[in-house]
């Protein structure tokens, strides 16, 4: 049966790949990691069955997964979009080069959809990490002891509206709003670097709102394939939001992943930040 076949976890950086592997193992299914060189945590990987791959080694990845008897694949973990020159082509990837070039002419969702189509064409089924480990999704409501104020809820509503408006352009999944003023939008740099940019702009005096005002809002793009690249937060997100002088973090409940939830709660309470799951179409926690 397909459900009994090992699960292939193609993993980038961070702790989420291991949380998914652990959750799958607890349910009695074997998980085999296919860590991406340069991104996956080499020390943590050693604790799991694994076979290393590099970005661009499509043929090698398929061969390894077939040898292990995998039929389903999960993509999970942090990877910065590479330049074409950074890919380590194997013969299979070279054969697909025209298709790969077309895939790079668009946003991240466009690129990932082409990657997904390739693996599906090889007979694999792509599944979302949240389907196999629903406990990694942030539920509706506050995660720690603090809750958003009415002003914060207004900022969250503005942030969700901005992200919805940006969705057709396949740009990013995060925005920072303070007093209904958009301070930053996520693009290629990612959430952590966007928050670092907010902290720097505050230090330079270009952001004049008081400390403890403003919200990081994250939401999936409209029509996004939830099998990969769902918005995610973790301990580092909380630390960066605190350095940026924000009041808290809001994500769409049931459509965003939280890594190391207990640590997130601990840090959020220590930094006096809220972390909340909200309705995608509104601001009710």
Quick structural overview:
The protein is α/β, with parallel strands linked by helices.
The helix count comes to: 11
Q: Which structural category do the helix and sheet elements fall into? A: alpha/beta
Oligomer description: single chain
Fraction in beta strands:
15-25%
Q: Portion of residues in helices?
A: 25-40%
The CATH topology assignment of the largest domain is Cytidine Deaminase, domain 2
Strand order of the largest sheet: 5-12-10-8-6-7
Order of helices and strands: EHEHHEHHHEHEHEEHEEHEEHE
CATH superfamily of the largest domain: LpxI C-terminal catalytic domain
CATH C-level class of the largest domain: Alpha Beta
User: What's the end-to-end separation, in Å?
Assistant: 40 Å
What is the architecture of the largest domain at the second tier of CATH?
3-Layer(aba) Sandwich
- The residue ranges in which pLDDT falls below 50 over 5 or more consecutive positions are none
In round numbers, the mean pLDDT is 86
Radius of gyration: 19 Å
Biggest sheet, open or closed, and with what strands and sense?
6 strands, mixed
**Could you give the count of β-strands?**
12
Q: Total domains, how many? A: 2
Shape assignment: globular
